[in-house]
Design goal:
Chains A, B: This is Serine carboxypeptidases (Lysosomal cathepsin A). Chains A, B: Belongs to the peptidase S10 family. Chains A, B: InterPro entries: AB_hydrolase_fold, Peptidase_S10, Ser_caboxypep_his_AS. Chains A, B: GO terms for molecular function: acyltransferase activity, transferring groups other than amino-acyl groups; serine-type carboxypeptidase activity. Chains A, B: It comes from Handroanthus impetiginosus. 2 copies of one chain form a homodimer. By secondary structure, chain A is α/β, with parallel strands linked by helices. Chain A has a domain of 298 residues: 3-Layer(aba) Sandwich (Rossmann fold). The first copy, chain A, contains 16 helices and 16 strands. In chain A, the strands form 3 sheets. In chain A, strands 1, 2, 3, 4, 7, 8, 10, 11, 13, 14, 15 and 16 form a 12-stranded mixed beta sheet that branches. In chain A, strands 5-6 form a two-stranded antiparallel ribbon. In chain A, strands 9-12 form a two-stranded parallel ribbon. In chain A, strand 10, helix 4 and strand 11 form a beta-alpha-beta unit. The radius of gyration of chain A is 22 Å and the shape is globular. The N and C termini of chain A lie far apart (46 Å). In chain A, 52% of the residues are buried. About 3% of the residues of chain A have low confidence.
Amino acid sequence: MKSCMHLLLCFLLLIKTTTSQSIIKTLPGYPGPLPFKLETGYISVGAEDEIELFYYFIESERDPETDPLLFWHTGGPGCSGLSGLLIEIGPLAFDLESFDGSFPSLVINPYSWTKIASIIFIDSPIGTGFSYSNKSNAYLSCDTKSANANYLFLRKWLLKHPKFLKNRLYVAGDSYGGKIATMVALEIAKGNEAGLQPRMLLQGYIIGNSRTGNEDSNERIPYAHRMALISDEYFELAKSGCHGEYVNSDPNNYKCQYALELIRECTKLINDIHILEPRCRYMSPRPNDILSGQLFLEDDPLDLLVLSRKDKPWCRNHNYVPIYVWANNETVQEALHIKKGTITSWTRCNMTIVYMNMAYKEDVKSIFRHHQLLNEKGYQALAYSGDHDMYVPYLSTLKWIRALNLTVDDKWRPWYVGGQVAGYTEKYKNYNQAFITFATVKGAGHIAPEYKPKECLAMIDRWLSLFPL
Amino acid sequence: MKSCMHLLLCFLLLIKTTTSQSIIKTLPGYPGPLPFKLETGYISVGAEDEIELFYYFIESERDPETDPLLFWHTGGPGCSGLSGLLIEIGPLAFDLESFDGSFPSLVINPYSWTKIASIIFIDSPIGTGFSYSNKSNAYLSCDTKSANANYLFLRKWLLKHPKFLKNRLYVAGDSYGGKIATMVALEIAKGNEAGLQPRMLLQGYIIGNSRTGNEDSNERIPYAHRMALISDEYFELAKSGCHGEYVNSDPNNYKCQYALELIRECTKLINDIHILEPRCRYMSPRPNDILSGQLFLEDDPLDLLVLSRKDKPWCRNHNYVPIYVWANNETVQEALHIKKGTITSWTRCNMTIVYMNMAYKEDVKSIFRHHQLLNEKGYQALAYSGDHDMYVPYLSTLKWIRALNLTVDDKWRPWYVGGQVAGYTEKYKNYNQAFITFATVKGAGHIAPEYKPKECLAMIDRWLSLFPL
């Protein structure tokens, strides 16, 4: 009877779904046929199927039959899966050398994670990338809704791609996407336990400089101290004055507020997503943006196009200009099979949903408990951190891992790529042999594969192959 | 009677001196006449004038009459002044883009410190660069001899260039050169007090990632901890096991030795002169060099010429290949007025004198007392540190400054270049208004101007102009 119910549920899932999917053989900007298998499509989710989530699926270039399946969540919230694909870990990248502001060229990324895994990139939550809804109230979202929607998306996607049901599955993501990925992993675990169909071969999750919650911000001060941005004195003042609580500090505690003000003065012009790179906002023609200080992914396309002129100093945000030109091009949208009239203008990271209309609420304040549950249930985790990121510093990640009170299985040591130290790693396990691998990526910022693509591919390859880093 | 004695001494200094000096109008590799005034020459020092110290003098490109005079000491010990001139802070640099292993081209360094100061670069101690002696036992040297020799050199140089006697004088240098510069500054101060002639207008000294003594190495462990190279656990283990003494640790203290061994494993393949750059030795065709682990300036010219092939990964040491080709070229040596037959082969850093023949002894174990005396005597100091150097970490510099127990005059704050944070600074003063300015250079390695030339010129310009950084 139970399994009949499940079959019925599967059937209902499928008939309710107004999915579309297309195999993309060529893309504007890339010469010749694509040397990998790309599929795009929409899958409808929500109580009334009112939300159309767009995705990009790329089969592993090695052996899609046996290689793992990754379900990738780009950060933000509000950053498109296309950004993950073209700027982080996908098989194509922009030819930045030749880019002059006109239509950009695409080249092969030799360090694509699709060399070793099949990856679904999703435009989520609703309002991100090419995802859309015809109902305006569908745009009201939050962590819980977003994670639920992504889980439902994946169930429907797997029902339409049943051959991937036998592949090892990992939920993955970085920055805010790491938070959602962790929540989705727990949804899957619970769904499997409840016997929901299809049953997924979830192995674990992979997160990079991932948001845990508000507590991340607390570690920015010890991090700034370690990285020589604030003095021993200021750090001691803050520690004793604020009793270690910097985010929700008491506004009437003047000793604490004074220390925090000294620290703010020291760090306010630091590029917190990579402390050694220039802070682009202050090279911008519109430095007094009303959102100043709120955005961490500061790519305003208008500013960027001005910024990318050759006579301006280099700024990482220049790298983000081609994706705006490309994704807003009509022939590109046709090639990707974007439904006409669904999106007025594509943005890499839709900050409007988060900051302007406040359409997205961070309703889950911390996912510490999610990590704990996943670990208790026996799932594996890889938590990596670009060590030059102050936005979500590696100290935040270490903090929640250590709070789990696990046993150290492989002590802190360097990991190597090409004979060089690529970072440091430590491996933890619970009574149940569920492992958490922590790894720093030396010299990398917030989105580690953007800075250290070769090292990150080696890391993920070893970890997915169950080798030590 | 006293002043007669001084005049006599001056006279003796001059007649004993077998100096040579030449104005250089053109240099091989640079098209057309040099757009600055370059003089090279030898000045003989030592009890019997047996040591010929070679120098390069460049007049300030702004106003040599009023701009300060810098007496620059390159590190090592054993690194040539030519390296300071062509790779660090001088008006010419190699065109690395066009270098293909044949004769290199020279280009203008827009961030030369000679834009704002006249600089003497010295090949010191004996055995360095083009300095030489006809007596083999003259090559036996040490800190004290080297500092004495450099002071004598400067007295003789100023007597031959009396118009610079009215310029503000600063002794300067980085790495080991910072140690010698500090010692020379104290020699000058004492010489002035003793009425030695010529009286020098010493204002203070400028040192970068400067060696203080053995205590520098002790700070590498806290630094490695801060920079995420070792874990909190290892650091705590070392602190409690070794009681904070890591350099001269007790070999029978197994708890300490165990912690140090864990730390050594974590950091042994880190490039300690810039922790984010590749460790070149391990890309070398001769990785098992007998000197492995001893050299910090790892440029073996034979290895480098192999390394500089385009198909090899980038390595900063590639930048050091052109100077070997250039300085060993016969027409270059003629242009520089090098005496024929005095040098068999020019090396950027003569490690032989330090490590192979042990010709150079570090007889002054710490210059903390020198700093203290200079501060008490009222001289100004700028102590800057590339903050990504583990060889002499900024923590070493902060340690001796703080041990002086001075008053903080300008609290820790960022300093800016082009609207970006270029580093952090703190200014200390004594009862006598003698200032010590500490500054980090954000993202720079051991030789800060090599990594951050624009920022370092701005720093030195402001400091020499008595402006806040």
